[in-house]
């Protein structure tokens, strides 16, 4: 696909929402015998100062929120999407999935040959929106904190911008990882 994602994104960022300036790192401290699984999963995760899991997380929570300069977040944060999330999963190339998510993308002019482009686009846009605080907190459990991010791509047939929700896991050490390439409209 010849469409340049950077060029496409330039058009979008002009209208981006207000940015979160203060960032925090969730730090779990080993001060008791009982290690709560949720706090352990949050240990080392980065959040926008106005968009982090409830803190303190519970009575006697020993966690602390350390401030991180926004400049560090901009320089160090990373987003990762496994190619397999698109091929075979999203486009169901092995016929093993029961979802019909590929139909939405096909209606926008995409097929499995766009998997790499989508992977890179979702990583780039996911990172940009994470850094600007444009995400929603989702489920938090012992596996970690999910966030959802709205991804915008061009409809190849009409040229209009279409969007969908992608799901990410916030990982320790400045990272978010794609869990759900298409989580709804
Ligand atoms: Zn806890
Ligand atoms: Zn805690």
Task: Tell me about this structure.
This protein is of the alpha+beta class. The chain has one domain. It is built from six helices and eight strands. The strands form two sheets. The protein has a five-stranded mixed sheet. A hairpin with a 2-residue loop joins strand 5 and strand 6. The two termini are about 25 Å apart. The site of one zinc ion has 6 residues, from helix 2.
Topology readout:
Elements lengths: L4 H9 L9 E5 L9 H6 L3 E3 L15 E5 L1 H7 L1 E3 L5 H5 L10 H7 L7 H17 L4 E6 L2 E11 L6 E11 L3 E6 L5
Parallel strand pairs: 4-8
Antiparallel strand pairs: 1-2, 1-3, 5-6, 6-7, 7-8
One zinc ion binds next to helix 2.
DSSP summary: helix tally:
6
Catalogue the unreliable spans.
Answer: none
Bound molecules: zinc ion
Largest sheet, in brief, is: 5 strands, mixed
Percent of residues in helices comes to 25-40%
Oligomer: single chain
SS-based structural class? alpha+beta
Number of domains: 1
Q: Secondary-structure element order, as H and E?
A: HEHEEHEHHHEEEE
Distance between the termini: 23 Å
Strand order of the largest sheet: 4-8-7-6-5
Q: Overall pLDDT, averaged?
A: 91
